[in-house]
């Protein structure tokens, strides 16, 4: 370990470690890229890929993100953008859950989809994408539906769960399990020009309050669909919430929901 730290320090005279030096370190010392990045951050050395985070996040905060494990439930419209942003942000351990495959109607908005991917499992495309974006990230894929039976196993070791689902029932199940496991949970939903974001902490009943009078499992998305921009906006807000929860920084959307009307460019906040 002493030799590794010496190598990393010598290749980061300005405090920034180039990607080539990370790859060389992994090969020279027989380590994974994840292990090299952890060693660099622990030593106060910032991988150069995160240098534009530097004015917003300290090296210590970057290290905290790297040591975090986040679960994204759903790899479709919201999930694809959430996974992309978490990997680029530097969250070091990501869990993705989705049983579905890509269909042609996904192509208008789902970041991970393309014509060649039709019929492919979404979690497989997610794993490939994250590996291309940031090979230092650990990625665990579950190609199954999230349910009461498998939820505790999927969320084992997770600090935050992220809702990228399109089913009311599955959302309520996720919220219930997060409460049981005492996990924070970031909710997001989209419908046409509209979306909403909220953060539920253990003991809260945010999702239950939002959906307790809902009679349709698929909600309004089934009627209005979604254009390309709505999931990108809501997913970004969800990732911002995840970042704040992990770092214990700023004010989250706890016990309140943020409604977005992108057609009239209006924001509304409702206390829960």
UniProtKB/TrEMBL annotation:
One of its GO terms (molecular function) is ubiquitin-like modifier activating enzyme activity. It comes from the Bacteria. Signal peptide: none annotated. Residues 50-271 form the THIF-type NAD/FAD binding fold domain. Pfam families: ThiF. GO terms for biological process: cyclic threonylcarbamoyladenosine biosynthetic process. This is UBA/THIF-type NAD/FAD binding protein.
């Amino acid at each position: 370990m002493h030799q590794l730290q010496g190598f990393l320090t010598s290749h980061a005279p300005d405090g920034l470690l180039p990607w080539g030096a990370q790859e060389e370190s992994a090969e020279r010392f027989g380590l994974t890229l994840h292990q090299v990045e952890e060693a660099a951050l622990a030593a106060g050395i910032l991988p150069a890929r995160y240098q534009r985070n530097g004015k917003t996040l300290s090296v210590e905060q970057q290290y905290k993100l790297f040591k975090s494990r986040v679960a994204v439930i759903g790899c479709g419209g919201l999930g694809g953008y959430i996974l992309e942003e978490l990997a680029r942000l530097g969250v070091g351990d990501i869990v993705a859950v989705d049983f579905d495959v890509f269909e042609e109607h996904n192509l208008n908005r789902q970041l991970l989809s393309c014509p060649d991917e039709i019929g492919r499992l979404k979690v497989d495309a997610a794993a490939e994408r994250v590996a291309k974006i940031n090979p230092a990230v650990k990625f665990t894929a579950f190609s199954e539906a999230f349910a009461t039976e498998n939820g505790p196993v999927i969320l084992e070791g997770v600090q935050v769960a992220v809702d990228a689902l399109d089913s009311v029932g599955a959302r309520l199940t996720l919220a219930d399990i997060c409460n049981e496991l005492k996990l924070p949970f970031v909710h997001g939903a989209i419908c046409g020009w509209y979306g909403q974001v909220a953060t539920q902490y253990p003991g809260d009943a945010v999702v239950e309050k939002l959906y307790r009078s809902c009679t349709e499992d698929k909600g309004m998305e089934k009627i209005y669909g979604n254009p390309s921009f709505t999931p990108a906006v809501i997913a970004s807000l969800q990732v911002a919430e995840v970042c704040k929860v992990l770092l214990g920084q700023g004010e989250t959307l706890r016990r309140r929901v943020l409604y977005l009307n992108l057609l009239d460019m209006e924001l509304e906040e409702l206390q829960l």
